[in-house]
Amino acid sequence: MTPERVGMFSDAVFAIAITLLVLEIPRPEEAQFGDLAGFLAERQGSFMAFALAFLMLWFSWRAHHTLFDQLHRVTQPVLLLHVPLLLFAAFLPYTMNLWSEMSSFHGDGEASKGLALALFAGTEAILMFCQGALFTLALVQGLLNGNASRRRMGTSAWVYWGCGVLWAVSAVLAFSVGEDSTYLWMATPVVVAVIVFVRRRFAPGLVQPELPGQT
Amino acid sequence: MTPERVGMFSDAVFAIAITLLVLEIPRPEEAQFGDLAGFLAERQGSFMAFALAFLMLWFSWRAHHTLFDQLHRVTQPVLLLHVPLLLFAAFLPYTMNLWSEMSSFHGDGEASKGLALALFAGTEAILMFCQGALFTLALVQGLLNGNASRRRMGTSAWVYWGCGVLWAVSAVLAFSVGEDSTYLWMATPVVVAVIVFVRRRFAPGLVQPELPGQT
Amino acid sequence: MTPERVGMFSDAVFAIAITLLVLEIPRPEEAQFGDLAGFLAERQGSFMAFALAFLMLWFSWRAHHTLFDQLHRVTQPVLLLHVPLLLFAAFLPYTMNLWSEMSSFHGDGEASKGLALALFAGTEAILMFCQGALFTLALVQGLLNGNASRRRMGTSAWVYWGCGVLWAVSAVLAFSVGEDSTYLWMATPVVVAVIVFVRRRFAPGLVQPELPGQT
Amino acid sequence: MTPERVGMFSDAVFAIAITLLVLEIPRPEEAQFGDLAGFLAERQGSFMAFALAFLMLWFSWRAHHTLFDQLHRVTQPVLLLHVPLLLFAAFLPYTMNLWSEMSSFHGDGEASKGLALALFAGTEAILMFCQGALFTLALVQGLLNGNASRRRMGTSAWVYWGCGVLWAVSAVLAFSVGEDSTYLWMATPVVVAVIVFVRRRFAPGLVQPELPGQT
């Protein structure tokens, strides 16, 4: 089993899932045609959900093929990890749909809104954990090419585990605080920056022996 | 006609079908937003159907490209077998939908539930028979690469024929015993293990001449 | 512009269209769950439409890549022909849907049934004309590889033009005779056989100079 | 990150979006089966929207891979530009749906029709601006292959920026003049011709040093 074949199948699933997202945005019904602007304004949460899910799958794709471009072989555990990774990537449109529908629901359903948010954030967290586990496996099982930077791969692993924890926490919080838990998502770039900074500051020894290989 | 081109088209159909499955999971209607947890709990059968159909297509993809990575050419019968293989792979989302809808149907419809299950299991059985036939054809028509293990290919052929029979039996049983026939599906790993064991035990002669090639 | 890139894009469109067909098969509504067998029996026309559209796209794909495997370059007219080819390949699911819905419609709508059939057969005819034109262009503009058989390509061109005429006639007939025009479709293999026979019998001069190249 | 990998992912998104368009064409409901011809005639705007959106995605794909065939590497800004490019390519089916539904809406909704048109034209404009920016970036950052024609790339950049401005203007006009703004779309070939003519006439110095490379 070559990395190319698994990489192409995963690429295809990411590309299809990212393009299917559009089918989950609510369309106006006959009665709502008269006031399209009002309909779209009320459904702005759906467009935000679409854009966010799109970005998430885009970054998942990038992380996946950044890794796979640097693998020289694929092991059974790496292959097995693709089952949850691709299952939840393919499932993301459903959770996006739930969140999108909920965001414009006016009835009495705080618990339902929290649940929809938790499912969306939880799916994201699982995707990130899978990516983190893939990077970790590649390091631990020695699957990287000769010219791959082990330090950069290690940082990527930490970044995905860290962001996964952040989104998992936001998923749990969504049950109690509802939509306020989405503020936590904005901390994602902060988590990334902190992890990159800490790795540079406290793990400098890792950098040295690789300097010739990096140029 | 090269194996690469047929392999890529099949890969694409499997990847699209596996990602389209998500469109078949029932979405809550306006009235059900208030109690999303209740809706999801009632529809848990749909999520199981989604996960199972996903796994089935994933294993179909793996079997297909494990075989195609080891073919050096493609014959007319191999090509013709792709018509039922891809037709039923593309059809699987429909049978998943039927089973998924039926699993949360409360009305009087034991016969309908059995039929939905039979269609799902039957589609799976056809997929497995097609895979078994592909492996068998590759062996009989001598299409394998020089470095492919004939013994392992033969075991794969037996495994797919055996699992196909199991699922075909469960499809027939579904008409009379309904959902209880799904317990038979859990025997799939047992069937695999028994076939692998029997092949190792009683067809050892096949192993010897290949030992050097396997390393 | 290389044949590979155009070929892969067309492959992708064919693969997606062939897998989207399943979404056009009518699903039972709540009230029909109780009698699933009755629903499926009534909708058998839909399953026939699905299988036929699947076969059509499969043969379109095969014709397309059989040709493209033997091209060494792509010209502007070849590229332009892909606009109607892919447009109507992508449109086929819609006409399949119309025909499928019509086949189980009990109301007073002979004219509508004829129209739905005419649209389906007309779309097929356009696909075949595009394929015929592609084969003809490849011959006329000298785009074939050195080891491609000009005679076989010429026969393919004639086959697609001939079948296109048959389906175009059936589309026109559908307006007056309705579903009886579908009997004409069964003549497709006959048309293919006659064209292949006539080419072999009356254009033998073309065969001779190529004999060494064919082995 | 190689151009091949990004190019293939973009190809896949374009191919999927172009094939998903068909799902957005309105299908007749039970009550409309009796008069299918009437239904289709009334919905002719939807078919025009489908064909136009198809053409737009086709040209987007062609522009994208014409460029990517001539890149030797990909930079971070080029990669970042793919986020809006692919996001709006994937979003196009939604705006096509809005325009399609609006075109056959008989109620009182001039403002809604203008908005639907504006969203469709605006999405197209964004796609063109992204393509223009990609061509410009490739020139400015020196990403082109040795045998790529800098002059032709420059003309492509101007063409996409120019057409983008035309469609952006039509999007703004749609709010006040409604459907009449679509006449502006017909000026697209004129804009292309003028830009190509002006580049040839007033930037001839660019042509000379490349003449040997062009043959």
From TrEMBL, chains A, B, C, D:
Does the keyword Membrane belong to this entry? yes
Q: Which keywords does this chain's UniProt record carry?
A: Ion channel, Ion transport, Membrane, Potassium, Potassium channel, Potassium transport, Transmembrane, Transmembrane helix, Transport
Membrane-topology annotation of the record:
Multi-pass membrane protein
The source's domain of life comes to: Bacteria
Locations listed in the record: Membrane
Q: Which reaction does it catalyse?
A: K(+)(in) = K(+)(out)
The transmembrane segments are: 47-65, 77-96, 116-145, 157-176, 182-198
- According to its UniProt record, which protein family does this protein belong to? Belongs to the TMEM175 family.
Q: What's the protein called, per UniProt?
A: TMEM175 family protein
Species, as recorded: Nonomuraea spiralis
